[in-house]
């Protein structure tokens, strides 16, 4: 059975004739399976490497490569902010990141989102969120 398994695996993996010959000439069944497994591991590793390389180097539409000049756009996640969303807003160097909660539904005005935030110290502020602001 092990002989048949090794030969069938070599056929299915379309291994080269040198490897197939080595499998047939090997008398120890376990060694024969080790040969097949080493080759399969190498084939599988190369397939994974090719797949990763292709995803990295997939051709990009030429329009996507164009340099975008002008005011930065709001990130997509900013449109998902709703009432009750917990956020951290970078206030300034002195206070740093301040935790708060959005207490009203955001209002979109042109290229900004107006957020009403209650910070954990109890203060409430209406703050515009634009692409350059620091929020997380």
Provide a compact summary of the structure.
This protein is an alpha+beta fold and about 140 residues long.
Protein described:
With about 140 residues, the chain is an alpha+beta fold. Helices cover about 40% and strands about 20% of the residues. Strands 1, 2, 3, 4 and 5 form a five-stranded antiparallel sheet that branches. α1 packs antiparallel against α2, α1 runs parallel beside α3 and α2 packs antiparallel against α3.
Number of strands: 5
> Can you write the helix and strand succession as a string?
HHHHEEEEE
Structural class: alpha+beta
Estimate percent helicity.
25-40%
What overall geometry do the principal axes of the alpha carbons give? rod-shaped
Short key terms for the protein model shown above:
single chain, 136 residues, alpha+beta, 5-stranded antiparallel sheet, 21% strand, rod-shaped
Helix-strand layout with pairing:
Elements: H1 2-12, H2 17-25, H3 29-57, H4 62-65, E1 86-90, E2 97-102, E3 107-109, E4 112-119, E5 124-129
Antiparallel strand pairs: 1-2, 2-4, 3-4, 4-5
């Amino acid at each position: 059975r092990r002989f048949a398994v090794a030969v069938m695996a070599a056929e299915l993996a379309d291994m080269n004739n040198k490897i197939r010959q080595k499998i047939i000439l090997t008398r120890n069944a376990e060694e024969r399976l080790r040969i097949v497994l080493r080759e399969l591991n190498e084939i599988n590793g190369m397939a994974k490497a090719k797949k990763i390389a292709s995803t990295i180097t997939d051709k990009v539409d030429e329009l996507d490569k164009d340099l975008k000049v002008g005011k930065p756009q709001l990130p997509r996640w900013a449109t998902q902010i709703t009432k009750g969303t917990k956020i951290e807003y970078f206030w300034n160097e002195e206070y740093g990141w301040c935790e708060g909660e959005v207490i009203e539904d955001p209002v979109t005005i042109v290229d900004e989102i107006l957020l009403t935030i209650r910070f954990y110290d109890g203060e409430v502020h209406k703050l515009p969120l634009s692409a350059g602001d620091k929020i997380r």
